[in-house]
């Protein structure tokens, strides 16, 4: 993973959601990615987390699509 890929993935995760930590560990409870501190201001996935982060973001996009379709169908 290049530094650019890591930066891009961090930005994508930050855009998707704010990091949620338990205040003791520097890991996001929502996506499992490392974050910059136990307070969790920004995601910082490691090289090994890149593929998993991509899969997680793809899954979230699918869930949002399903929810939009469900809402659209309920208004018809």
Summarize the structure in short.
This protein has helices at residues 3-16, 50-74. It is mostly helical and 76 residues long.
What does this structure look like?
With 76 residues, the protein is mainly alpha-helical. It has one domain. It contains 2 helices and no strands. Helix 1 (3-16) runs parallel beside helix 2.
What is the terminal-to-terminal distance?
Answer: 46 Å
User: Which residues sit in consecutive blocks of at least 5 with pLDDT less than 50?
Assistant: none
Number of domains: 1
Helix content: 40-55%
Strand content: under 5%
What class do helices, strands and sheet pairing give?
mainly alpha
Our count of helices gives: 2
Number of strands: 0
Task: Please state the overall shape, judged from the principal axes of the Cα atoms.
Answer: globular
Report mean pLDDT, rounded to a whole number.
92
Which key terms come to mind for this protein?
0% strand, mainly alpha, 76 residues, single chain
Give the secondary structure arrangement, pairings included.
Blueprint: H1 3-16, H2 50-74
